[in-house]
Design goal:
heterodimer, A: 91 residues, mainly alpha, 0% strand, rod-shaped, B: 194 residues, 9 helices, globular
Chain lengths: 91, 194
């Protein structure tokens, strides 16, 4: 088969054609972030809310007993036995 | 610039537009797309042959240009400035990957919607030739198909094909030789009548 014959034959081979608006769709796709890149989750407010909730729980579990202890009468101190006064130290 | 069969050896995109596109100018990139979209669609459609639903061809064509867009800033750094060959290389690789993912289809090849511009007289003949070419091309492994189409339809140089398919020059030539033999055999009946 000569080269010119091949050209003739290949000219009969139909080609797929671009659809209308293809370039517009390409431009939109190009503006989007690359598909293969693992995206950072955009749900940051949720994460910070949950972190705040945990922090508040921890704070509450530490502070509430402390506050309750302060407001209570100093029974703990009163219950400590008084050591007898031995007077001034001697040389 | 690759010489396309039957077309003048001139770039499809002028240097100024190309430089603007490389710098990220969207209007310039749109020109790059519009000047190459027909070739990209034709190449992908022909490599896929029977698997070439318009949706798949369009998806791969779009993926080709998205990759071109993201890689364009580094275009030419290796000293090669053949934009068309570069774009067709990306398209060919995507089409070959797609072909490998798909099982071989067994239904007969027809080209009922082929070549809308053909005259009524020549239409049946053209469909017969087109189906014969498709049968011959489908008998080739994906890389052979791609090499044949890149060379015989899009006129890429042997070196560009070797680079596109990551094979050496000798392999390109042997694949092209086998593809031509297969095509000649497939078209034998048609050619004997002429």
């Amino acid at each position: 088969m000569k080269s010119s014959d091949l050209d003739l034959v290949l000219s009969a081979w139909p080609a797929a054609r671009p659809t209308a608006g293809f370039a517009d769709r390409v431009m939109v796709a190009c503006a989007a972030p690359p598909v293969n890149v693992r995206r950072v989750p955009a749900a940051r407010p949720r994460r910070s809310r949950s972190l705040l909730a945990v922090a508040a729980l921890v704070a509450a579990s530490v502070l509430v007993p402390l506050l309750l202890q302060r407001s209570a009468p100093p029974q703990a101190l009163a219950s400590i036995p008084v050591v007898a006064d031995l007077g001034p130290l001697q040389d | 610039m690759a010489a396309m069969r039957g077309e003048p050896d001139q770039p499809l995109v002028d240097d100024l537009t190309l430089q603007r596109a490389i710098r990220g100018d969207e209007a310039a990139f749109r020109i790059v797309v519009s000047r190459h979209e027909a070739q990209v669609f034709a190449l992908i459609g022909r490599i896929l042959v029977r698997s070439r639903s318009q949706g798949i061809v369009e998806d791969l064509a779009q993926e080709t240009f998205v990759r071109v867009f993201h890689a364009l800033p580094s275009f030419g750094r290796d000293g090669r400035w053949n934009l068309t060959a570069w774009i067709l290389t990306i398209a060919a690789r995507l089409a070959i990957d797609e072909l490998r993912k798909r099982p071989r289809q067994e239904e007969p090849i027809t080209f009922d919607q082929a070549d809308e511009g053909a005259s009524a007289d020549g239409d049946a003949e053209r469909k017969r030739i087109a189906a014969a070419i498709a049968r011959a091309v489908e008998g080739l492994v994906p890389e052979q198909r791609a090499a044949f189409i890149l060379r015989e339809v899009h006129g890429l140089e042997y070196e560009a094909i070797a680079e596109a398919l990551s094979i050496d020059l000798g392999t390109v030539k042997s694949r092209l030789w086998r593809a031509r033999v297969a095509l000649r055999a497939a078209l034998k009946g048609i050619y004997d009548e002429k």
